[in-house]
Design a protein that fits this description.
It is a single chain. By secondary structure, the protein is mainly alpha-helical. Helix content is 76%, strand content 0%. Helix 1 runs antiparallel to helix 5 and helix 12 packs antiparallel against helix 15. The longest helix is centred in the N-terminal third of the chain and has 40 residues.
Length: 447
C-alpha cells in the first residue's frame, strides 16, 4: 500500500508542477505577442489578429482535443504538446534574437499555443480522478485554479519585464519553462485510454466528438451547472469590461486601472487557495448558490457605491468566491463522467464557459454605449438575480447525484462499457495526495 500511496500523490504533484511551468509560459506569451506585433508593424489591428488566432485555435481545437484525450494515452498527448511548444518557442526566440521575425512566424506560435493549450487542458483535467482519491478531487481542482491565477500573475509580470530587456527573452524563458514541464511529465506514469474509449480514429473524427455534448445533455445536474458557469463567465466579462472601459474614458490613471486588474487576479488566487476549506463549510450545492447571489450583491455595489478603489475591491471579492463553486461543479463533473468520456466532457465544458467569456467584451461595449455605466451594471445585476433565483429553485441542484453515478452506461452511442471500475478513484483509505501542499507555499495556470 505505501508504494501505491506514493505513486498517486507523486503523480498529481508532477502533473501540477509541470502544468504550472506551462501556464507561466502561456501567460508570458499572451501579453508579449501583441506588443511585439505592435512594435514591428505599428498596427493595433494586426496586434489584435494574434490574440484572435490564439483564442480561435483554442476554441476550434476544443472538441477534437477532448476526443484525442479519450482516444490516446493522456500523458503522451501532453508530452507531444510540450515538445511542440519547446520547438516553436525556441525557434521564435532565435528569430527574434537575429531580428528576422515576421508576422506569419508570430501567428504560427499563437496557433500552436492555442491548439496545444486545448489538448493539454483536456488531457490534464481528465487525468485528475485517476491520480487522487475521490474525496480529494475537489481539492485538486481548486489547486489547479490557484495554479492558473498564479501563472497568469507571474507570467504577465515576467513577460513585461523580459520584453523590456530584449524581445527574445520572454520566448527563451518560455522555451525553458516548457522544457522543464516536458521533463517532469516523463516521470509520470502512462495514462492509457479507459475501457470504452473510442476504439478507432473514426470515433475521434466523427460522432465521437459529440459524445461530451450528449453526456452533459443527459444529466440535469451537469446541464444546469454548465449553464450557470457560462452565464456567470459571460456577465463577469461584461461587468469587467464596463468597469475598465468606463474608468479609462473617465480619465482614471492607468496605474489605478492596472491595480484593479491586479486585485482581480489576487482575489482569484486567494479564493482558489481557500476553496478546499470553504467547500467543507458549504456542503451540497451551496457553493453555487452562494457564488451566484454574492455576484448579484457585489455587482450592485459596483454600480452604486462611490470610491475609486471600490470596483477593484468588489471585483476581487467576486473572483475570490468563484473558485469554490468552480471546484464543486468540476469535481462532480469529473466523478459523474466515466473515464472513457472525461476528455470530451471537459472540452465541451471549457468551450461553453470559455465561449461566454470570449464574447463578453463585445457585449460589454454595446451595454456601455447604449445604457452607460450605472444603468448597464444594474441591468446585469437584474439578469444575474433572475439566474440566481432560477438556479436556487432548480431540482437538478437540490438532488445532486452521487459521484458513483458514472458506473452507469454512457448515453446513446455505445462507446462506453458502463463498467469502468479500473480507473475509479482509490478508496478513502488511500493517502491524500499532496494536492494541498501548495496551500502553504504555492508555486505558480490557460492555464
Amino acid at each position: 500500500m505505501p508504494p501505491e500511496k506514493t505513486r498517486r500523490g507523486g503523480g498529481f504533484t508532477l502533473l501540477w508542477v509541470s502544468s504550472a511551468f506551462g501556464e507561466f509560459a502561456y501567460s508570458t506569451s499572451l501579453i508579449v505577442l501583441p506588443l511585439i506585433v505592435l512594435a514591428l508593424t505599428g498596427s493595433p489591428s494586426q496586434a489584435g489578429i494574434i490574440g484572435f488566432v490564439d483564442a480561435a485555435a483554442m476554441l476550434l481545437a476544443g472538441l477534437p482535443a477532448g476526443a484525442v484525450a479519450d482516444r490516446y494515452d493522456r500523458r503522451t498527448v501532453m508530452l507531444w504538446c510540450q515538445a511542440a511548444l519547446v520547438a516553436v518557442f525556441g525557434a521564435l526566440a532565435l528569430l527574434l534574437w537575429a531580428d528576422a521575425v515576421s508576422l506569419p512566424a508570430l501567428a504560427v506560435l499563437a496557433l500552436v499555443n492555442g491548439v496545444a493549450t486545448a489538448l493539454t487542458m483536456a488531457a490534464g483535467e481528465a487525468m485528475i480522478p485517476s491520480l487522487v482519491p475521490e474525496e480529494r478531487v475537489s481539492d485538486a481542482v481548486a489547486m489547479n485554479a490557484a495554479r492558473t491565477y498564479a501563472g497568469q500573475l507571474a507570467g504577465t509580470s515576467a513577460g513585461g519585464f523580459l520584453l523590456a530587456v530584449k524581445h527574445a527573452l520572454p520566448f527563451v524563458v518560455g522555451c525553458l519553462a516548457h522544457l522543464v514541464g516536458l521533463v517532469l511529465l516523463l516521470f509520470l506514469k502512462r495514462q492509457p485510454p479507459a475501457a470504452g474509449a473510442p476504439a478507432d480514429r473514426s470515433e475521434v473524427s466523427g460522432r465521437g466528438l459529440l459524445e461530451g455534448v450528449r453526456w452533459i445533455a443527459s444529466h440535469p445536474f451537469l446541464r444546469v451547472g454548465l449553464v450557470c458557469a457560462t452565464a456567470t463567465n459571460f456577465f463577469f466579462g461584461v461587468i469587467y469590461f464596463v468597469v475598465i472601459a468606463s474608468a479609462q474614458t473617465s480619465g482614471m490613471a492607468t496605474g489605478l486601472i492596472g491595480m484593479m486588474a491586479a486585485l482581480l487576479g489576487v482575489g482569484g488566487l486567494l479564493g482558489a487557495l481557500a476553496a478546499p476549506l470553504l467547500q467543507r463549510v458549504l456542503t451540497g450545492a451551496r457553493p453555487i448558490y452562494v457564488v451566484l447571489w454574492t455576484f448579484v450583491v457585489l455587482t450592485a455595489g459596483i454600480a452604486v457605491l462611490p470610491g475609486s478603489w471600490t470596483p477593484g475591491v468588489l471585483l476581487g471579492a467576486i473572483a475570490f468566491a468563484a473558485p469554490t463553486a468552480n471546484a464543486y461543479f468540476t469535481s462532480y463533473q469529473l466523478l459523474l463522467t466515466p473515464d472513457s468520456h472525461r476528455g470530451r466532457v471537459v472540452s465541451v465544458a471549457a468551450i461553453a464557459s470559455g465561449g461566454g467569456g470570449a464574447v463578453a467584451p463585445l457585449a460589454g461595449g454595446v451595454v456601455l454605449d447604449l445604457a452607460g455605466r450605472s444603468a448597464g451594471l444594474l441591468g446585469c445585476t437584474a439578469v444575474m438575480a433572475v439566474i440566481a433565483l432560477l438556479t436556487s429553485l432548480s431540482p437538478a441542484l437540490r438532488d445532486v447525484p452521487r459521484p458513483g453515478a458514472h458506473d452507469t452506461a454512457p448515453p446513446a452511442t455505445g462507446t462506453g462499457t458502463g463498467t469502468e471500475t479500473d480507473d475509479a478513484p482509490p478508496a478513502a483509505g488511500d493517502a491524500a495526495p499532496p494536492a494541498a501542499e501548495p496551500v502553504a507555499a504555492p508555486p505558480p495556470p490557460v492555464r
